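Dear colleagues,

As part of the handover before I leave the project, I'm documenting each prediction I ran so the next person doesn't have to rerun anything. This entry is a single chain, and its sequence is reproduced below.
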Amino acid sequence: MRIIAKEFNNPSNRLEFSWLPTEIKDNGGNVMFASYNLLDRGEFVRPSGNDLRKISWEGRFPGEARREEPYLAGDWEVPEDCDDLLRQWASKRKKVKLTIENTNINEFTCYINNYSSTYTGGFGDIEYSIEWIAYKSLSVNVTKRPKTVKKQTKRAKKDYKTHVVVSGDNLWDLAVKYLGKGSRWREIYAKNDKIIEKVARAHGFKSSDNGHWIWPKTILKLPKK
């Protein structure tokens, strides 16, 4: 049995785990775990589910003093080099293809989710713990919003004329000028009573005395003739 990890975009950058872990945990994309006992190749139960698949184990990179051990599954490699490569893959979120022979983990596309290691013993070993998680690309569909064309609403034409009050104006004279009769001054007042009274109060008067007082710069709407 062999465990081999290859960098997805650079397969020559690879690592073979010469010291096989006792057990590998695989959630198979489900919350239920299946375990591979690599010593006696125990029964494998294939789980199913929709969660991202995670594979994890604890192991060691044997020091140089163990390089001739007969139980190594592959060629011995310098433990520091193995550790550095995994740390690089983890920190840069490198996409990796993981294969574990005699299991259904074959060319499993993933990246390292968690990795930690420590130097131990007098053999120069490095013990480590690793968790791989399935790589999942996220595609985002961007839909362009249709341009909103602002409708230009035509302003309604004024159905009245206006007059800006100047010094000396009064409603009687304005009624004569615009409506033909001075007696129609009440129509001008009725059409503008709110603004006339507001301006009167602004000038300190209680009221305009029904339009008797009007002030310059007041804009008056004129009734139809």
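The longest strand covers residues 108-120. Residues 185-202 form the longest helix (18 residues).

All the best with the project,
I.
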